[in-house]
Design goal:
The protein is an alpha/beta fold and 196 residues long. The chain has helices at 6-15, 48-53, 60-71, 97-114, 124-131, 137-140, 158-163, 168-184, 189-192, and strands spanning 32-33, 39-43, 80-83, 118-122, 145-147, 150-155. The chain is 43% helix and 13% strand. The chain is globular. The structure holds iron/sulfur cluster.
Protein backbone atom coordinates (compact mmCIF):
# COMPACT_ATOMS: atom_id res chain seq x y z
CA UNK A 1 0.00 0.00 0.00
CA UNK A 2 1.43 3.43 -0.87
CA UNK A 3 2.13 5.81 1.97
CA UNK A 4 -1.05 7.74 2.64
CA UNK A 5 -1.13 11.53 2.52
CA UNK A 6 -3.70 14.27 2.02
CA UNK A 7 -2.25 14.88 -1.42
CA UNK A 8 -2.86 11.24 -2.37
CA UNK A 9 -6.34 11.31 -0.81
CA UNK A 10 -7.48 14.38 -2.76
CA UNK A 11 -5.92 13.06 -5.95
CA UNK A 12 -7.68 9.70 -5.57
CA UNK A 13 -11.07 11.28 -4.89
CA UNK A 14 -10.69 13.70 -7.83
CA UNK A 15 -9.81 10.86 -10.20
CA UNK A 16 -12.29 8.34 -8.78
CA UNK A 17 -14.73 6.52 -11.02
CA UNK A 18 -15.27 3.53 -8.75
CA UNK A 19 -19.06 3.91 -8.80
CA UNK A 20 -21.60 5.55 -11.12
CA UNK A 21 -22.14 8.55 -8.85
CA UNK A 22 -19.21 10.45 -10.38
CA UNK A 23 -21.25 10.84 -13.58
CA UNK A 24 -22.86 14.24 -13.73
CA UNK A 25 -21.53 15.77 -10.52
CA UNK A 26 -20.39 19.38 -10.66
CA UNK A 27 -17.83 18.87 -7.93
CA UNK A 28 -16.73 16.01 -5.78
CA UNK A 29 -17.02 16.74 -2.07
CA UNK A 30 -14.15 15.08 -0.22
CA UNK A 31 -14.77 16.80 3.13
CA UNK A 32 -13.06 19.63 4.95
CA UNK A 33 -12.14 21.02 8.33
CA UNK A 34 -9.39 20.66 10.91
CA UNK A 35 -7.25 17.73 9.73
CA UNK A 36 -5.84 17.43 13.26
CA UNK A 37 -9.24 17.42 14.97
CA UNK A 38 -10.03 14.85 17.65
CA UNK A 39 -13.66 14.95 16.47
CA UNK A 40 -14.91 13.92 13.03
CA UNK A 41 -18.50 14.08 11.77
CA UNK A 42 -19.71 11.83 8.97
CA UNK A 43 -22.93 12.40 7.05
CA UNK A 44 -24.55 10.66 4.10
CA UNK A 45 -23.66 12.42 0.87
CA UNK A 46 -23.45 15.84 -0.77
CA UNK A 47 -26.65 17.71 -1.60
CA UNK A 48 -27.24 20.33 -4.26
CA UNK A 49 -25.40 23.21 -2.60
CA UNK A 50 -22.51 20.95 -1.61
CA UNK A 51 -22.28 19.68 -5.20
CA UNK A 52 -22.16 23.25 -6.48
CA UNK A 53 -19.52 24.39 -4.02
CA UNK A 54 -17.45 21.23 -3.56
CA UNK A 55 -17.75 21.55 0.22
CA UNK A 56 -19.49 19.31 2.75
CA UNK A 57 -22.43 20.58 4.84
CA UNK A 58 -22.73 24.09 3.44
CA UNK A 59 -26.46 24.04 2.51
CA UNK A 60 -29.37 24.51 4.95
CA UNK A 61 -28.59 21.25 6.79
CA UNK A 62 -24.97 22.30 7.11
CA UNK A 63 -25.98 25.66 8.52
CA UNK A 64 -28.09 23.89 11.13
CA UNK A 65 -25.14 21.64 11.95
CA UNK A 66 -22.96 24.72 12.42
CA UNK A 67 -25.54 26.11 14.89
CA UNK A 68 -25.74 22.77 16.72
CA UNK A 69 -21.95 22.76 17.17
CA UNK A 70 -22.01 26.40 18.24
CA UNK A 71 -24.63 25.51 20.86
CA UNK A 72 -21.96 23.39 22.58
CA UNK A 73 -19.35 26.13 22.03
CA UNK A 74 -17.58 24.20 19.28
CA UNK A 75 -16.50 26.32 16.30
CA UNK A 76 -17.05 24.49 13.04
CA UNK A 77 -13.43 24.97 11.99
CA UNK A 78 -12.30 22.86 14.96
CA UNK A 79 -13.84 19.63 13.61
CA UNK A 80 -13.51 17.64 10.40
CA UNK A 81 -16.69 17.00 8.38
CA UNK A 82 -17.25 14.62 5.49
CA UNK A 83 -19.73 12.13 4.05
CA UNK A 84 -20.03 8.42 3.33
CA UNK A 85 -20.01 9.15 -0.43
CA UNK A 86 -18.08 11.99 -2.01
CA UNK A 87 -20.36 12.45 -5.04
CA UNK A 88 -23.95 13.69 -4.97
CA UNK A 89 -26.52 10.94 -5.53
CA UNK A 90 -29.13 12.00 -8.13
CA UNK A 91 -32.12 13.78 -6.55
CA UNK A 92 -30.48 13.38 -3.14
CA UNK A 93 -31.43 9.71 -2.97
CA UNK A 94 -29.78 7.49 -0.37
CA UNK A 95 -26.52 6.01 -1.71
CA UNK A 96 -26.76 2.30 -2.51
CA UNK A 97 -24.77 -0.26 -0.54
CA UNK A 98 -22.51 -0.71 -3.57
CA UNK A 99 -21.82 3.02 -3.84
CA UNK A 100 -21.10 3.33 -0.14
CA UNK A 101 -18.83 0.28 -0.27
CA UNK A 102 -16.95 1.68 -3.28
CA UNK A 103 -16.36 4.98 -1.50
CA UNK A 104 -15.17 3.37 1.73
CA UNK A 105 -11.58 3.38 0.46
CA UNK A 106 -11.62 7.18 0.61
CA UNK A 107 -13.32 7.37 4.00
CA UNK A 108 -10.80 4.89 5.40
CA UNK A 109 -7.89 6.95 4.15
CA UNK A 110 -9.16 10.23 5.57
CA UNK A 111 -9.99 8.60 8.89
CA UNK A 112 -6.48 7.11 9.00
CA UNK A 113 -5.01 10.55 8.30
CA UNK A 114 -7.09 12.36 10.93
CA UNK A 115 -7.07 9.60 13.56
CA UNK A 116 -10.07 11.06 15.43
CA UNK A 117 -10.89 9.82 18.91
CA UNK A 118 -14.60 10.57 18.59
CA UNK A 119 -16.79 10.26 15.49
CA UNK A 120 -20.37 11.54 15.24
CA UNK A 121 -22.48 9.63 12.72
CA UNK A 122 -25.11 11.91 11.23
CA UNK A 123 -28.12 9.88 10.21
CA UNK A 124 -29.06 6.33 9.42
CA UNK A 125 -26.86 5.90 6.34
CA UNK A 126 -23.67 6.87 8.14
CA UNK A 127 -24.59 4.85 11.24
CA UNK A 128 -25.44 1.68 9.32
CA UNK A 129 -22.38 1.91 7.10
CA UNK A 130 -19.98 2.36 9.97
CA UNK A 131 -21.58 0.39 12.81
CA UNK A 132 -23.56 -2.25 10.92
CA UNK A 133 -26.91 -2.77 9.20
CA UNK A 134 -28.60 -3.68 12.47
CA UNK A 135 -28.35 -0.08 13.69
CA UNK A 136 -31.67 1.78 13.96
CA UNK A 137 -31.14 5.50 14.26
CA UNK A 138 -34.35 6.14 16.20
CA UNK A 139 -33.40 3.43 18.72
CA UNK A 140 -29.62 3.78 18.83
CA UNK A 141 -29.07 7.54 18.57
CA UNK A 142 -27.44 9.04 21.62
CA UNK A 143 -25.69 5.76 22.55
CA UNK A 144 -21.91 5.46 22.57
CA UNK A 145 -20.33 2.68 20.53
CA UNK A 146 -16.65 1.75 20.63
CA UNK A 147 -14.72 0.24 17.73
CA UNK A 148 -10.94 -0.23 17.82
CA UNK A 149 -10.49 2.43 20.46
CA UNK A 150 -12.63 5.04 18.67
CA UNK A 151 -15.92 6.26 20.17
CA UNK A 152 -18.93 6.64 17.86
CA UNK A 153 -22.12 8.59 18.56
CA UNK A 154 -25.01 8.15 16.13
CA UNK A 155 -27.51 10.97 15.98
CA UNK A 156 -30.03 12.40 13.55
CA UNK A 157 -28.88 13.94 10.29
CA UNK A 158 -29.58 17.70 10.33
CA UNK A 159 -31.71 17.24 7.17
CA UNK A 160 -34.01 15.01 9.22
CA UNK A 161 -34.26 17.75 11.85
CA UNK A 162 -35.25 20.27 9.17
CA UNK A 163 -37.97 17.89 7.98
CA UNK A 164 -39.14 16.99 11.48
CA UNK A 165 -38.30 19.71 14.03
CA UNK A 166 -39.88 17.60 16.80
CA UNK A 167 -36.66 15.56 16.80
CA UNK A 168 -34.54 18.57 17.73
CA UNK A 169 -34.96 17.93 21.43
CA UNK A 170 -33.37 14.48 21.12
CA UNK A 171 -30.65 15.91 18.89
CA UNK A 172 -29.91 18.52 21.55
CA UNK A 173 -29.60 15.76 24.16
CA UNK A 174 -27.11 14.02 21.85
CA UNK A 175 -25.07 17.20 21.48
CA UNK A 176 -24.94 17.52 25.26
CA UNK A 177 -23.71 13.92 25.48
CA UNK A 178 -21.06 14.80 22.92
CA UNK A 179 -19.98 17.86 24.88
CA UNK A 180 -19.80 15.84 28.10
CA UNK A 181 -17.65 13.16 26.43
CA UNK A 182 -15.29 15.70 24.86
CA UNK A 183 -14.95 17.31 28.30
CA UNK A 184 -14.38 13.96 30.03
CA UNK A 185 -11.68 13.00 27.53
CA UNK A 186 -10.15 16.48 27.69
CA UNK A 187 -10.11 16.70 23.90
CA UNK A 188 -10.78 20.44 23.67
CA UNK A 189 -9.23 21.75 26.88
CA UNK A 190 -9.24 25.35 25.61
CA UNK A 191 -13.04 25.15 25.17
CA UNK A 192 -14.24 22.84 27.92
CA UNK A 193 -11.50 23.20 30.47
CA UNK A 194 -10.97 19.46 31.01
CA UNK A 195 -12.12 17.32 33.92
CA UNK A 196 -12.02 18.93 37.36
S1 LIG B 1 -19.03 8.38 -4.72
FE1 LIG B 1 -16.98 7.81 -4.04
S2 LIG B 1 -16.59 5.81 -5.00
FE2 LIG B 1 -18.27 6.77 -6.11
S3 LIG B 1 -17.26 7.85 -7.81
FE3 LIG B 1 -17.54 9.34 -6.14
S4 LIG B 1 -15.60 9.29 -5.03
FE4 LIG B 1 -15.68 7.41 -6.30
Amino acid sequence: MPEISWELFHHQVAACALCPLHQGVRNKVPGQGDVGAPLMLIGEGPGQVEDEEGLAFVGPAGQLLTRMLAAISLPRDRVYICNIVKCRPPNNRVPTEEEAAACRIHLRMQTALIRPQVIVLLGSTAAKNILGPEIRITRDRGRWFERKGVLFLPTYHPSALLRDPARKREAWEDMQRLRDKLTELNLYPDIYGGTP
